[in-house]
Specification:
This protein is mostly helical and about 700 residues long. The protein has 29 helices and ten strands. It has two domains: about 300 residues, 3-Layer(aba) Sandwich (Collagenase (Catalytic Domain)), CATH 3.40.390; about 210 residues, Neutral endopeptidase , domain2 (Neutral endopeptidase, domain 2). Strands 1-8-9-7 form a four-stranded mixed β-sheet, covered by helices on one side.
Length: about 700
């Protein structure tokens, strides 16, 4: 399901996620692992492929049996360890929601539980949704029809911003990157129905096929709206989106935090887009206060968009807005809209043959709209206090390891080391769940109005964010729900966050010894810490202030840093998960740095935990070996080609099989643990191994 809350892309702070989240069903071969098993080592040695030497292909040694024995769920585009954990969480969340449904809404005394029940019920009552068809969108379609002139588009876009409907740019509240105690109203490019500009502009048979299918999908949506000129309007929409794609910045360009930071006055914004009535836009968006603190991400895009808004026929723009309105809201309409949307975005774009069961989609909606309220129930029922205390110890050891590593770096000068240590000392850690829960008291849902509920949730989030303008940043806030199987680092808050959802096997095993935990959740912790020092994070100081390059580096250290990181760009770009679609080493650079550095620091932290004693041998494996097994089993994954292509074009993370393999090839500790020698396929000469931390 595509998140319809388009404004939230900008209302949340810049966060860098671990990646790979989803809901799937466990297969029998994985059940022992998903439940934690009874293996003290945390490694199921029966799943190791002994026919493949670990020194030749460690990822295949760890994962090939699992891949062969595991059937890809029909509802998924990819399936791996993250999904297994998320599936376990999903089952527990369903139990919680089902228990709320046992109490009639009128008798439910706890407001948040009543709201969750009403929202979920509005999604699950198919008969009401079917009877309404597209009529819940009629008022908004009429607003589009009422547009007579291009100059009227500013008012329409302003009205649609709080509702979360897709349009050529997103607008919402985010932290000021150069003054992290303040917020700004930020706007950035948006408005494409395909995942990336390359889908419109690149001449490749696979992408040309997607474009042809997308055109048919647009036409079908117009036909479902009762449009007698569906084919013509579909072609107009695709042509307009292609023009938008031409003026958009690439994902690599958008990784530059300095180039995408552009504070502007209202006058400067008007000068940039003279044909667009910004006064009208902000008034219609209920955001007059926002005009005091404005920022845009891609100035050249807005300048070129001004020409498109003025010169493209107004009827073409009306077709564009109608399509995006219905596309975004299709998951909440009758079955014909749902199925038409899924046939393109699910099957054609991601290769998924089957739609998720309705209850899973309903649960996703609850998480989308009331994630923390559901999370509060989740942690009370399923998150053990011991997990939080064990994580505290792990994080402290990782930070100590990072400190020692920085102090001993050979390529960094004392001046830069002092600044790096200063930033490290200010890192903040959040584990499990927020200290202060989000207030949903002003948000209400009706059991019989699904579309209205989704729009109400979008308006609630938008209004909540607007309230932040002019007020101090609330640094207790979380930007990921507690039940999420993921983690993140925020450079502007200089904090690492580990939700309760990821703190379970195989990432974190309370029953296992430390080795596998340092290899799995320890590498996750190291990954997130490393983001504070990667090519983007290193441009922010400890207070979260954007400095740009060289930031707190000396010029010479930045030169060395870039030379080393360029090695990652070349190394990862040499691999292709699908023939003809290589990994984009520039797009994935930050995540590749974090994967490699996180692994190295986690291993050093494991060594610290041994207190100078030798590691124990369990299941025939040394502690050092179990560490690397713990790391590699996290990255088990199956993925459909269509999904792999989409992620190559749009995801800053490398594919799982490369995340589980390349960091090991760069790690001297791995060579020592397994005796990797010249001639082994995992071997790289020391001069070709890339290390930063």
């Amino acid at each position: 399901m595509i998140n319809t809350k388009s404004h939230l892309i900008f209302s949340k702070n810049l966060i860098i996620r671990l990646g790979l989240v989803g809901f799937v069903t466990c297969t029998p071969v994985s059940l022992a692992l998903a439940e934690g098993g009874n293996l003290k080592s945390g490694i199921d040695t029966q799943l190791l492929d002994q026919a493949i030497r670990p020194v030749d292909d460690f990822y295949a040694h760890v994962s090939s049996k699992w891949i062969q024995q595991t059937e890809m769920p029909a509802e998924k585009s990819r399936y791996g360890t993250f999904n297994i954990v998320a599936d376990s969480n999903e089952k527990n969340l369903k139990k919680l929601v089902d228990s709320l449904l046992d109490v009639p809404s009128a008798e439910q005394k706890e407001p948040e539980k009543r709201k969750i029940s009403n929202l979920y019920s509005s999604f699950m009552d198919e008969s009401i949704v079917e009877a309404k068809g597209v009529t819940p969108l009629a008022p908004y379609l009429r607003k589009i029809d009422a547009v007579k002139l291009n100059s009227d588009l500013s008012s329409l876009m302003g009205e649609f911003t709080p509702l979360g409907f897709g349009m050529p740019f997103n607008g919402g509240v985010r932290q000021d990157a150069k003054n992290p105690d303040l917020t700004v109203f930020n706007m950035g490019q948006s408005g494409l129905g395909l995942p990336d500009r390359d889908y419109y502009l690149q001449n490749d048979p696979k992408l040309e096929k997607v474009r042809a299918s997308y055109l048919l999908y647009i036409e079908k949506q117009f036909m479902l709206m009762g449009d007698k000129n569906a084919a013509q309007h579909a072609r107009e929409v695709l042509n307009l989106e292609t023009e938008l794609a031409k003026i958009q910045w690439t994902k690599v360009e958008n990784r530059d935090p300095v180039k995408t930071y552009n504070k502007v006055s209202l006058k400067e914004l008007k000068d940039l887009m003279p044909g667009f009535d910004w006064q009208n836009y902000f008034k219609s968006a209920g955001a007059n206060k926002a005009t005091e603190v404005l920022a845009i991400n891609q100035p050249s895009y807005f300048q070129a968009l001004s020409v498109l808004l003025a010169n493209q026929p107004v009827e073409v723009w009306k077709s564009y807005f109608k399509f995006h309105l219905v596309k975004d809201m299709s998951p909440y309409l009758s079955k014909d809209f749902v199925d038409t949307r899924f046939s393109f975005y699910g099957t054609e774009l991601s290769g998924i043959p089957s739609q998720k069961p309705r209850w899973k989609r309903g649960l996703m909606l609850v998480e989308q709209c009331m994630g923390e309220a559901l999370g509060k129930q989740y942690v009370a029922e399923y998150f053990p206090a011991e997990a939080k205390s064990r994580m505290d110890k792990l994080v402290k050891n990782l930070l100590v390891a990072y400190k020692q590593d920085i102090e001993n770096l050979s390529w960094m000068t004392p001046q830069t080391k002092a600044k790096a240590l200063e930033k490290l000392a200010t890192f903040k850690t959040k584990i499990g769940y927020p200290d202060k829960w989000r207030d949903y008291s002003s948000l209400n849902f009706e059991r019989t109005d699904l579309v209205g509920n989704v729009i109400a949730a979008n308006q609630f989030d938008y209004a909540r964010d607007l309230e932040k303008i002019g007020k101090p940043i609330d640094r207790s806030e979380w930007h990921m729900s507690p039940q999420t199987v993921n983690a993140y680092y925020s450079p502007q808050w200089n904090e690492i966050v580990f939700p309760a959802g990821i703190l379970q096997f195989p990432f974190f095993n309370l029953e296992a010894d430390d080795a596998v935990n340092y290899g799995s959740i320890g590498a996750v912790i190291g990954h997130e810490i490393s983001h504070g020092f990667d090519d983007k994070g290193s441009q922010y100081d400890g207070s979260g202030r954007l400095l740009g390059q060289p930031g707190w580096f000396t010029n010479e250290d930045m030169k060395n840093f870039k030379a080393r990181t360029q090695g990652y760009v070349l190394q990862y770009s040499a691999y292709s998960p699908v023939p003809g679609f290589p990994v984009n080493g520039e797009l994935t650079l930050g995540e590749n740095i974090a994967d490699n550095s996180g692994l190295e620091i986690a291993f050093k932290a494991y060594e610290i935990s041994l207190n100078g004693k030798p590691s124990t041998v369990l299941d025939g494996l040394t502690g050092e070996q179990r560490f690397f097994y713990g790391y590699a089993q996290v990255w088990r994954e199956k993925i459909r080609d269509e999904e792999a292509i989409m992620r190559i074009k749009s995801d800053p993370h490398s594919p799982g099989k490369f995340r589980g393999r390349l960091p090991l090839m760069n790690s001297d500790a791995f060579y020592k643990a397994f005796g990797v020698r010249e001639g082994d396929k995992m071997y790289l000469p020391p001069s070709q191994r890339i290390t930063l931390w």
